[in-house]
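Notes, p. 3: input format for complexes.
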Amino acid sequence: MLEVNDIHTYYGDAYVLQGLSLKLEQGQILGLLGRNGVGKTTLVNSIVGFNPPRRGSVVFKGEEISRQSSFETVRSGMGLVPQGRRVFPTLGVEENLLVAERSPERHGWTLERVYALFPRLHERRNQRAKTLSGGEQQMLAIGRALMTNPDCLIMDEPSEGLAPIIIQGLWEAIGKLKEQGLSILLVEQSAHLALKLVDYVHVMSKGQVVYSGTPQNLLANEQIKSSYLGI
Ligand SMILES: Nc1ncnc2c1ncn2[C@@H]1O[C@H](COP(=O)(O)OP(=O)(O)OP(=O)(O)O)[C@@H](O)[C@H]1O
Ligand SMILES: [Mg+2]
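Output follows (231 residues plus magnesium ion):
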């Protein structure tokens, strides 16, 4: 579904991604873990074209996308749930969803189906997004990405700043998306949370992948857990 091959990404002179590779198989959830500041969001920005890599390739459904605009990448089926939600604050809930609406014939995501996944959004459909709780804004950010009818969803720290009970509900929703066949790149700082969902995991440090394995193998690896995940 998505393959990142040896990418090198900078902010000006700052060399952040230093030869990073990953592979997301169709229908799987790939976890990308790592502490604060290791370059997780920079990777997301490189994949979606906000900050393209200077070297290396990003291949999505067999096509090289690292030189195309974010607009084209989203149009070709990449859904983004950005870190910090980034909903349109003064638009209503339903307006936030409708601005993203695209090609329902692709995977059948419509307003009704997003509301079925997140009934709370239906209850709040006429409220401005800025009046929602953090958990509701996260549901809205996910719903907005689903409205683009993506083949692949990238979620950047969806649990950030949310209470455990809210996260539990979100995690159930993400599990349903996987059951429905969506491929997901789940970027998380919390290994404990990510490992409940993912099929495979990469751990990042200083702009590189330092460990790859199954959740079971990572859980059994005390050295990686303590060195790179603070567990
Ligand atoms: N716009 C920017 N300009 C310059 N440097 C940046 C910019 N954004 C991030 N950086 C730097 O790049 C490095 C990686 O940051 P990034 O946001 O990718 O980390 P992260 O793993 O997503 O962290 P977090 O867990 O805080 O979200 C950090 O050293 C950060 O200071
Ligand atoms: Mg980040």
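The CA atoms of residues 44 and 154 lie 8 Å apart.
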